[in-house]
Amino acid sequence: MINKIIDFCSTFWDTLVSFFDWIYEGILYIQFEICYLFLDVFFSIIEVIISSIDFVQFTALDSFGKWNVLPDQILYILYKLNIAQCLTMLASACIIRLTLNLIPAAFTRV
């Protein structure tokens, strides 16, 4: 008789623990999906912003001096290696970095 009571209690306890474990995993899954949703929306917005910028118009080779003095072979290699886009991305990254550095300074020095 006592063994049946002990078996019932252990089975009930295991069922209760598995139920709360199931609820806990469900809550964690929902939180993960919500975070993924926000990240997906954020990355979609960033993708739209970056795709709206036409990097062809802002090539760095046009604005970094007189590149037409160089021989045609060197210019051909530079354009094939996409040096213009590389310099443009580096310049835009520096500008974005400098802009983002201004944001905390505006709030901390108030």
Walkthrough of the structure:
The protein has 110 residues and is mainly α. The chain has two domains: 1-52; 54-110. It contains four helices and no strands.
What structural keywords apply?
single chain
Quick synopsis:
The chain is an all-alpha fold and 110 residues long.
Strand content: under 5%
Please work out how many helical segments DSSP would assign. 4
Fraction of residues in helices?
over 70%
**What distance separates the N and C termini?**
74 Å
User: Which structural class do you get from the secondary structure elements?
Assistant: mainly alpha
Number of strands: 0
Report the sheet with the most strands, covering strand number, pairing sense and barrel closure: none
Poorly predicted residue ranges: none
The coarse silhouette is elongated
Total tally of structural domains:
2
Average pLDDT level: 82
Rounded to an integer in angstroms, the radius of gyration calculated over CA atoms is 30 Å
Element-by-element helix/strand order: HHHH
